[in-house]
Amino acid sequence: MTHRPEGTAEETPAALAQRLGLPFKNFLLLSRALTHRSYLNEHPEALEDNERLEFLGDAVLDFFVGAWLYNHFPEMPEGDLTRMRSALVRTEQLASFARKLDLGPAMRLGRGEVQAGGRNRDVLLCATFEALIGAIYLHCGLDVVNHFLSPLLEETDPDELILTEVYDPKSRLQEWSQAQKLGIPRYVTVQTSGPDHERIFEVEVEIAGKVYGRGSGNSKQTAARNAAQNALENIEK
């Protein structure tokens, strides 16, 4: 894996594959993994955006990160393993991985998204990273996914990950609701507004059929955390 030369504004899929040491022979799949729907709107010749690959990559990451944690921390209890997995696949952490790989310049975005700073937005970097994992899995298999992901995971701090997840409002709210025997909180997206490059999500959190909090954010994950924080504040009152 090599670094991208400084001063270059954009990076082609072929150049990205070479820099990251990915054995892609056909770059159509990799190109799709890098294509945001805003690019598709402006380039009708592009056949598909990366949302389906993002869905697949999310599932592959859940499996692989769980297996990696299980094998690397044989003495760790199930609760801590669950917290670490949640922390490793959250938007901010996957965006951090994407920045380490310098994926931003390779992302295929619409002009408005580029002008709005989309190459450095957590939600887009996370989505692109997930789509890239999906493409690697489809084209190269789990062994290459393992080779690609393991160095990124090795650099993470287990203690910091657990602390991050312990203090996450969604985790705290779920612990409270289960202690009250009310079940698991349910997060519902009640409204979406704004253009593609400035999308705002409104999320409500329900527990046992009752709305406890509401939050907004530029991703569903952020909005859900804000809703959980709002619920905790309401409960404390």
Characteristics:
three-stranded antiparallel sheet, mainly alpha, Double Stranded RNA Binding Domain, 237 residues, globular
Task: Write a structural description.
- By secondary structure, this protein is mainly alpha-helical.
- The protein has 2 domains: 13-165, Ribonuclease iii, N-terminal Endonuclease Domain, Chain A (Orthogonal Bundle), CATH 1.10.1520.10; 169-236, 2-Layer Sandwich (Double Stranded RNA Binding Domain).
- Helix content is 58%, strand content 10%.
- The protein contains 12 helices and 3 strands.
- The chain has helices spanning 13-20, 28-33, 37-42, 51-72, 78-88, 91-100, 111-115, 122-140, 142-154, 158-166, 169-179, 220-236; strands at 186-193, 200-207, 210-217.
- Strands 1-2-3 form a 3-stranded antiparallel β-sheet.
- A hairpin with a 2-residue loop joins strand 2 and strand 3 (210-217).
- Helix 6 (91-100) crosses helix 8, helix 8 runs antiparallel to helix 9 (142-154) and helix 11 packs across helix 12 (220-236).
- The protein is globular and about 55 Å long.
- The termini are far apart.
- The model has no long low-confidence stretch (mean pLDDT 89).
